[in-house]
Design a protein that fits this description.
Chain lengths: 308, 255, 232
């Protein structure tokens, strides 16, 4: 998809545009004058941006409200840090533990589940650690550690890196448990996959980027994520959080909430559902459900004192 | 109009170059300062050119003590003086632009900008005065040449034209021919004579006594921190008051 | 917003054009400001004796090697909502990128210009003064005499500014709008984005665009220099 990405996006935008035309014109009553012409700063992860989803998602929003969305693609850690400093209005990331810290510290309000995809554990086709038989991510990581097979980590505090550390934690390995077989890539997903390919190593990758690159590398999926029936642990959920205007009064809270409303609406979710890259669905909408889902608003496992 | 150094003293750090030196130049006269190398002739000329303030004494122009003036007023006096150095010290530009330099700096910024633009688009055909000055040193034909392409003698003649172009009242010449061949030396000396005829006052520092004898009306001998003798050229050369002057002229005094 | 497809090129022309525009706008502005800032300093340090001159010179020389990410972090700290310039709302703007490239380019331009103006002979400066020039005139003569060296300095500054990725990524945020028009994305940050995705071919292509651009600017400056701006 690499080369044709943009043409494809444009084509997809055309298709989506037709699909959306009906809903858009309904709402085209001149927009809200208060936010017209303003700019929303969205810090987000590279994966949402680089797959082309964000352009697809943002264009109708910008049109309808007469605003522009500045999407800053960076790692989840950096995206949240910018929000902490009040330099972003809204954050779209995929690391629940980091999002929860952000919420608990009071920097974020009105978190919503947005969408998900999944991670896969990939490695050389001959699978030296023999993890292909595992349908459990933790067990697969344990095998890699036991056989001291080379593993390349993102090492950049991104959502993928956070997930990786979470699995290592479950496998009972911490910093001092890693040996020379554990390499810190310190780069983007694409670079990490390339490093893993050259080293004949294993790595944890998000499915989208891996699918994107599989033509150019000799790695294959050994442990699938939940999208293909794999363990829930490899689920990669994306959340969206507005920056708390009580902490940073300069943030554009109105617009942030309008954006959250839009991306979690039927219309926004439909764009996510229908978005295809090289005929593959990359993201699965998760915002709408008939059942109650209070946990999306609060840190995981949080319970109100008054409940007790 | 008289440029005058009155009882001046100058020192570099603790080392006194000269002390109690007095010298003046009137319109249409050539005053030569002779003396061996390193005796402070250049320093004296720099004082007269108002480069630096003397450490003692006074520099006056038309009886106005220059160093008591504001920098802006001093500039007016400075601009009545021209100077030629031992080295041509030309700008890396055409002969014409070199000769025009003094005229340019005297113009308003808008005029200067206009000239710069005209030069950039090649529309400027030069200033009459600058071309006249080049004519005086026989280099009018070379006006469009690059200054760097000139021979040493030609370059020094351009330097002379550069100082002459803006019509100064006083010309200070610091060993202007010491690096030149006889032909170019003669051309410079002719130009000096021509300048004198235009009523320009000239002070020339030289270690070449024959040159002083050829062109100077008066001669001052700078030796051992002071001017030991100052008078009409013929008198100084034929009948020096000071024994050291006679020895220096006869070449017996070796430094 | 839905522009026609360009089939043979991996990016839309609008995308390429806008990142080239942002790159040039940011770097040329930063270099112009740096030059205006650096030349007086170079002249001052080159020709005035003052206490702490050695210190200033070594600060300039150290500045020539400032890591761009460090500069980016410092500028980010300054312009961030929490920082001293927070109220100006400069995070993720081209203005912030210009600020960081200014900090990167200024020491290079100052350092190389300092070497260039220092090599101008004192007697040429004296001649300008003796012909009735003011101190400002002498400064202009010095700049004209050192023009090739200063052009080199400006090119070196431009090279550093347009090719750096660390600071513009940090303070600019690498933003392109949803229709593919660059807001704060430069050629270098676009390359970085492609490389992070492992799309090395497209990154390489953008790299070629950058090299061509730098060569072009160099050629223009050298051409202007050899024309000699009418000083003949």
């Amino acid at each position: 998809m690499s080369i044709q990405r943009r043409q494809f996006m444009t084509a997809a935008a055309g298709a989506a545009g037709i699909g959306l035309a009906g809903c858009l014109s309904d709402d085209d009553r001149g927009g809200t004058p208060d936010i017209n012409g303003e700019t929303l700063t969205l810090t987000t992860t590279t994966s949402t941006y680089a797959t082309g989803l964000l352009d697809e998602l943002n264009a109708p929003f910008e049109d309808r409200y007469g605003v522009s969305v500045d999407a800053v693609p960076e790692g989840t850690g950096a995206a949240l840090e910018h929000a902490r400093n009040g330099d972003a209005d809204v954050v779209m990331v995929h690391a629940r533990t980091l999002e929860d810290e952000f919420l608990e510290a009071g920097y974020g309000v009105n978190r919503r589940d947005l969408m998900f995809n999944d991670f896969v554990i990939v490695g050389e086709s001959d699978d030296p650690a023999g993890i292909a038989s595992e349908d459990d991510a933790t067990a697969a990581f344990e095998e890699i550690a036991d056989t001291e097979s080379t593993f390349v980590s993102r090492g950049d505090n991104s959502g993928t890196h956070t997930k990786e550390r979470e699995i290592w934690d479950e496998a009972g390995l911490s910093d001092d448990g890693f040996g020379e077989w554990y390499l810190d890539g310190g780069g983007g997903m694409g670079e990490t996959l390339n490093t893993a390919n050259m080293e004949g190593a294993y790595t944890l990758a998000d499915r989208g980027t891996f699918l994107d690159m599989r033509e150019e590398i000799d790695l294959e999926i050994h442990v699938e994520g939940p999208v293909e029936g794999g363990p829930e642990l490899l689920r990669n959920p994306y959340g969206i959080v507005a920056v708390n205007p009580a902490v940073h009064e300069n943030v554009n809270y109105d617009l942030a909430m309008a954006y959250i409303g839009y991306v979690t609406s039927l219309e926004g979710q439909e764009i996510i559902e229908e978005y295809r890259s090289n005929d593959e669905q990359l993201f699965f909408p998760e915002a709408l459900s008939e059942d109650s889902n209070f946990q999306q608003y609060v840190p995981e496992g949080w319970e109100s004192d008054s409940d007790g | 109009m008289t440029l005058e150094a009155i009882d001046v003293r100058h020192a570099y750090g603790d080392e006194t170059v000269f002390d109690g030196v007095s010298l003046s130049v009137d319109p249409g006269e050539v005053v030569a300062i002779i003396g061996p190398s390193g005796v402070g002739k250049s320093t004296l000329l720099r004082l007269l050119a108002l480069f630096d303030a003397p450490d003692g004494g006074e520099i006056t122009y038309d009886d106005t003590p220059i160093w008591q003036l504001s920098e802006k007023r001093r500039l007016e006096y400075r601009r009545r003086v021209g100077m030629v150095f031992q080295e041509a010290s030309l700008f890396d530009a055409s002969v014409r632009r070199n000769a025009e330099y003094g005229l340019r700096v005297r113009q308003s910024w808008t005029d200067r900008l206009r000239h710069e633009v005209a030069d950039l688009v090649g529309k400027s055909n030069g200033t009459g005065q600058a071309l006249e000055a080049l004519e005086t040193v026989g280099l009018r034909e070379q006006a469009t040449q690059d200054a760097a392409s000139l021979s040493g003698g030609e370059a020094q003649r351009v330097a002379f034209a550069r100082a002459l172009a803006y019509d100064p009242e006083v010309l200070l010449l610091d060993e202007p021919t010491s690096d030149l061949d006889p032909r170019n030396t003669a051309m410079i000396e002719d130009a000096v004579m021509e300048a004198r005829d235009r009523d320009i006052g000239i002070v020339i520092a030289t270690h070449d006594m024959h040159q002083a004898e050829r062109i100077a009306d008066r001669v001052g001998v700078l030796l051992g921190n002071e001017i030991i003798e100052l008078g009409a050229t013929e008198r100084v050369f034929d009948d020096p008051n000071d024994e050291r002057t006679r020895k220096f002229i006869d070449g017996e005094l070796i430094y | 917003m839905l522009t026609p497809l360009v089939v043979d090129f991996p990016f839309e022309w609008n995308y390429i054009r806008s990142i080239i525009y942002v790159s040039l706008y940011v770097s040329l502005t930063a270099v112009a400001l740096s030059t205006l800032f650096s030349l007086p300093i170079a002249l001052f340090v080159g020709f005035k004796d003052f206490r702490g001159k050695t210190l200033v010179t070594s600060i300039i020389n150290t500045g020539m090697g400032f890591p761009s990410v460090v500069v980016g972090l410092v500028v980010l700290f300054a312009v961030s909502n929490q920082g001293p310039l927070g109220s100006f709302d400069l995070v993720f703007t081209t203005e912030a990128m210009i600020m960081s490239q200014f900090v990167l380019a200024a020491p290079v331009i100052t350092g190389v210009s300092l070497a260039a103006v220092s090599s101008v002979e004192q007697n040429v400066r004296d001649a300008a003064y003796a012909m009735g020039g003011t101190k400002l005139d002498v400064a202009f003569v010095t700049i004209k005499e050192a023009r090739y060296g200063i052009a080199t300095a400006v090119l070196a500054g431009f090279g550093r500014a347009i090719s750096e990725v660390g600071s513009v990524l940090i303070v600019g945020g690498n933003i392109a709008s949803s229709d593919g028009t660059s807001v704060t994305r430069t050629i270098t940050t676009a390359i970085q984005l492609e490389a992070r995705q492992g799309r090395f071919e497209t990154a390489m292509l953008l790299g070629a665009v950058l090299v061509v651009l730098v060569l072009l600017v160099n050629a223009i400056v050298v051409r202007l220099g050899s024309d000699d701006g009418g000083y003949r």
